[in-house]
Amino acid sequence: MQTVTLKPKKEIKISVEGENISADIFSGKTEKEIHALVAWMGNQKTTIGELFSVKVEGSGPAADTKIILEGDFSRVKRIGEGMTAGLILITGNVDMHLGAKMSGGKISVKGNVDSWAGREMKGGELIIEGNAAYYLGAGYRGESCGMRGGKITVMGNALDFVGEHMCGGEIIVKGNTGILPGLSNNGGKIVIGGNTSRPGSEMSKGTIIVNGKVEEMMPVFKLEGDEIVDGVTYKKYTGDVIGNGKGLLYVK
Amino acid sequence: MELLIKNGAVVDPVNGNKGDKTDISIKDGKIVKTVSSKATIIDAGGRLVMAGGVDAHSHIAGAKVNVGRMMRPEDSRSGISPRTKITRPCTGYTVPNVYAMGYRYAQMGYTTVFEAAQAIMKARHTHEELEEIPIIDKGALTLFGSNWPTMDFVREKDMDKLAAYVSWGLLASRGFGVKCVNPGGGEMWGFGKNVTGIDDVVPGFDVTPKEIIVSLMKVNEMLGLPHSVHLHCNNLGNPGNYKTTLASMELANQVKASKKRQVMHVTHLLFNSWGGTNWGDFESKADEVANFLNNHKNVTGDMGQMIFGSATTMTADGPKQYANAKLLHAKWSNGDVELEDASGVVPIYYVKQISVHAIMWAIGLELALLTKDPYQMLLTTDHPNGGPFVNYSEVIALLMSNKKRQEEIKTVHEAVHAKNKLPGLDRELDFSEIAIMTRAGTAKVLGLLDTKGHLGVGADADISIYDIKPDQIDPTVEHAKIKSAFSSAAYTIKGGNVVVKDGQITATPLGRTYWVDAKVPQQHHDEMMKDIVKKFKNYYSMQLANYMVQDEYLTHQQVVKAGIIPAEVN
Amino acid sequence: MTVITDALCPFCGCLCDDLTIVVENNKITDIKNACKLGSAKIMGHHRIEAPMMRADKKSEFKEVSYDEAINEAASILFKSKRPLMYGWASAVCEVHKKGILLAEEVGAIIDNTATVCHAPSTLAVHEKGLPTATLGQVKNRSDVVVFWGSNPVHAHPRHMGRYSVFAKGFFQEKGRKGRKVIVVDVRKTETASMADEFVQVQQGSDYLVISALRAILSGHADVVPESVGGVTKEQLSKLVDTLKAAKFGAVFFGMGLTQSISRYKNIDNAISLITELNAYTKYVITPMRGHYNVTGFGQVCSWETGFATAVDFARGAPYYNPGETAANDVLMRKETDAAMIIAGDAGAHFPADSVRHLARIPVVQIDPYWNPTTEVSNVVIPVAICGVEVEGTAYRMDGVSMRMRKMIEPTLPTDVEILEKITQRVRELRGE
Known about the structure:
Strand order of the largest sheet of chain A: 5-1-6-8-9-10-11-12-13-14-17-16-15
Structural class of chain A: mainly beta
Strand content of chain C: 15-25%
Distance between the termini of chain A: 45 Å
Radius of gyration of chain A: 19 Å
Number of strands of chain C: 22
Number of helices of chain C: 18
Number of strands of chain A: 17
Oligomer: heterotrimer
Shape of chain A: elongated
CATH class of the largest domain in chain C: Alpha Beta
Helix content of chain C: 25-40%
Shape of chain C: globular
Largest interface: B-C, 64 and 64 residues
Distance between the termini of chain C: 48 Å
Number of domains of chain C: 3
Order of helices and strands of chain A: EEHHEEHEEEEEEEEEEEEE
Radius of gyration of chain C: 23 Å
């Protein structure tokens, strides 16, 4: 078991690119080695050691590596990018692209995450106790697939475009979401605990369940009647009819 | 500056060299007989030396290439490399940025590349990009096949005016040759329609694709242009289209070449050699097309080889692109140009286990292996339609090794066994044949064989050295080495400058842009311009005075003279 | 007296190229064929006469030499860890090329004015492509023309006459009489008043209305409610019939569509509608671009960097992700620590929070004109006016490029000269 604890040395104003903060990269490395890892801040090439205090206890493979991020990481992007195993615990807020392209392991955030958390995620788990911003579990611009696998749970709210272009995996938002969740959903599952608007536009496959209120329904869904899912009765819709979509939209 | 390449195994089919150790002397950017003792020496150490690669058909610059970039940030984010002291940053795989275009061609040992299609009205854009593609020499073919003046003069059977229009259109666009894409179809796409074969009548203009093709060939030869008509056949991409292709190629017999070259070049034949009637009974007719070429020396073609993986289809064939987008449920850009032509851009992903894709892949290779004379079948991927040009080394390795082909066939959809002849073809090309398909042949087809595609005295000092010793390698077995060597040149020399060493860019001089200045009798020009002036007054959305590409967009131009009136009479 | 014919207008994305300019003693004395907006632009206003600097934003500007201003500009960019280089729309492509090179060298974010108008259209193009055509194609063929969230009477005064509504063409000899003009907007605009049909959409409901049209078009009218976004199903069905009946339809959209709720998704959806209409008849769609060469920046930036705008060169290689790398993204987060604003007016058009941040950081302005950006600048470098005093390339809203003429001789240096000198100075500061 290896535990690595990072703490910002001072307030970070210009975002730092933290793609080297991941269990795969930290595992088996000494403090000195982690210190030397590159971290870009704006157009300045700097190191993790310059920006963060680093404490390493033990040593182990990625799957047995735990990273604890203490303090304010709200200006550190791309944490856990491409991670395949291990655990990251974040005690506060984090910046964009948390866990982008990750395929395994777990990231847990006490605070809020900025946009593109879980972008193009393939596997593993993201747990966000606060709120998520835009494009949760979505794709990169122009790509046909966003999230492909794994699970994202947000205890708070999320903004627009949750799970855009999702091709697989599951997103649970306990609170409300912004507009157009599940846009172009192509096979993922989205469960929204609260309210939302315009869900499921252009979905071809997959499932969206809305437990709160839908402020505006897209005029592209066929009402199939009532259906009971996990003991709850929903109105079941299929669509988006424009592309003969086979998506399922459940609204309480 | 003088340069001497010693101990090279020189493969130079034009000058009859098949790998003999020959020294090459270079002075002031040209190959010369001898150089002084002050010359810088490059010791090739027995490695393969060829003329710099020449690509006669690639989409490297202009409106539709840029549309490809704009609609595909997901492509641009691949292949990214930061700026260095010498190079600008690179992006993209199927639609690289301008810098990557030049660097990557040079890194493969290519030194001359022709953009395959520009509409006159958007030619300024093409030249803006060409001006920023480093290292390589380049040029662009100009679209004429659906232009209203073309169709009007064809209908009036006025070849003098048509020749004058082609001459003026090349000047206006600073174009190198006559491109004809789905003739007539570009106009009909203006109303969402298309022609179905070479005998359909184009509404509003009362001409057929056949008449357009024949007339453009006639005036091309009247003008004595270096290159022949460059044809993208009607019905491209439709099962059963080989009949249209054969019927189109047959038209070449109606016109006599003005030069020692073909009268018709039919491009990316992979997409035009299709049998069957639908995607279910889709099959290869590469054998029929190759057989035609084997019996008709006045027509040449290029492969348009497909590469599995990501590609971006882009062509002036607007209706085909809409059909593609519908078929693939892909994003679709369209770019009709008033009075001139259409165009479309659609991303695609070629998959080994999709039967149609596997059959297409095999068709390209069949075309190269069944066409006996490599001067008649150039190596292209119709970049980025069949796949990005950076994969040429893969195509070379496949053509040189049946072993590699058989290994590859095992990984693709089994349909190739029933629908293609490829599994049974055992021809393996040698270095000379590869040099023809990538250098001598392309230069000859373009009409640039005097200075490009060979290593004789007087040729441009465009040279590539590959990390292969021809006498110590068996390409039929060691295909991986072949692929690796051709993907990254040991040296690329452009105009006498070393621009690549060990696969790395070492210098980035700006190459030249070739265009053809073809003269016609003044009175033909004046008569023709009366029609053009009317078209600008009534139909174009811009002024004639702002139409032609200005000199500012060609800072390094190479003008090739041609025309009905010999230059000295002018 | 010199008369320049077929001159290009440096105002809007129509890039009219039929102006006649009369010049006497290096002064423009008459302009023919231009609209009022174009004429006013060409005649000029509020020129900055000399370079100026000030130590802080509260002090008065002091006139300085060009060298001093250039050195200070270079120093600001060189020292910056997160520089932003914004503007570009009112400059020719030759300026964009120099700007992108400088952005590369100082590791800046480069973004253009599209970020506050049509950048959402680009985001939509990433999703769906853009089925479009040159404007002459519309002039020669169109029989149905739709203005959606755009008001050419007001913003592109000659568009309808030259290209879209009144223009006569080869297959459309009647001009206005041969065309059905439809306006979709949230309010009855000047353009709507002269349309054959006006479809009034509730604010923010464009996305829903477009989806409803697509549903009806695809034969699923049954799922469409009786009213969508304030438009009755009956009117929507009738509209679909009208659209389908066209031989050649053209849709021109403006900021009413790009800057309302759902933003780029509205365009995304509209492009899908156009694509689907092509199964029945011919349709094209074109953004009504604002500045005369805002399109050009997108073109140059695409072929040089692979991305149309909002390119972050911080790490030496282009990175693109609007929402993260656009001007207002980094300004609102207060990440930008220095800005160069050139041929665009951030001071006038950016949200208050962004402008407030600009007021806190060193700002270099390069522009012919005094404008709200000047008020937040530290270094102001006046330049010659592109398209009036400087020739160069511009791209019309439909992607057709033309060369702008020089009408009069400049008395000030050009943008290109200034950018080259700043770049040179940055290299010196780097020790090259």
